[in-house]
């Protein structure tokens, strides 16, 4: 969708913000035993670290790798929705373990159980990240992006 480097920066900032915020809210609610209104505010404390981390990873590393992996399964001649889904799935598959690793390192106090806690965090985060991205976040951000940058 983004056609220029500037548009790619804007798109990645928007997408990473909404994905990270939702995933932080989910993880905090899991840690405290349920969702409360307070979680929406508490999440902003972790956003200071996690949003820039997600943006940098996505923009400089994951996006390129995800495209490369996606085009092992699809071709440029496939329907645009198929290409979009393939790229999104590859981004989720790469970002979820990495972001879960960072969150485990910074917020979980896992100690000697680090690998086990990281794997558990990844497995708990993956289905939520998958469905949130494909069903809500991705379509919503693409809709907003098209409003911000209408094609001529």
UniProtKB/TrEMBL annotation:
The keyword Transmembrane is assigned to this record: yes
Top-level division of the source organism's lineage: Bacteria
Residues passing through the membrane, by range: 6-28, 40-61, 81-107, 114-135
Keywords: Membrane, Transmembrane, Transmembrane helix
InterPro entries for the chain: DUF2798
Protein name as catalogued: DUF2798 domain-containing protein
Species: Fusicatenibacter saccharivorans
């Amino acid at each position: 969708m983004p056609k220029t480097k500037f548009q790619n920066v804007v798109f990645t900032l928007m997408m990473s913000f909404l994905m990270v915020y939702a995933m932080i809210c989910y993880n905090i609610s899991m840690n405290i035993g349920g969702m409360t209104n307070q979680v929406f505010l508490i999440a902003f404390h972790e956003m200071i670290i996690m949003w820039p981390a997600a943006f940098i990873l996505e923009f400089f590393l994951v996006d390129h790798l995800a495209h490369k992996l996606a085009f092992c399964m699809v071709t440029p001649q496939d329907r645009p929705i198929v290409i979009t889904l393939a790229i999104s799935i590859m981004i989720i598959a790469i970002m979820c373990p990495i972001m879960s690793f960072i969150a485990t390192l910074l917020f979980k106090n896992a100690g000697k159980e680090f690998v086990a806690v990281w794997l558990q965090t990844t497995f708990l985060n993956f289905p939520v990240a998958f469905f949130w991205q494909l069903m809500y976040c991705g379509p919503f951000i693409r809709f907003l992006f098209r409003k911000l940058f209408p094609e001529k």
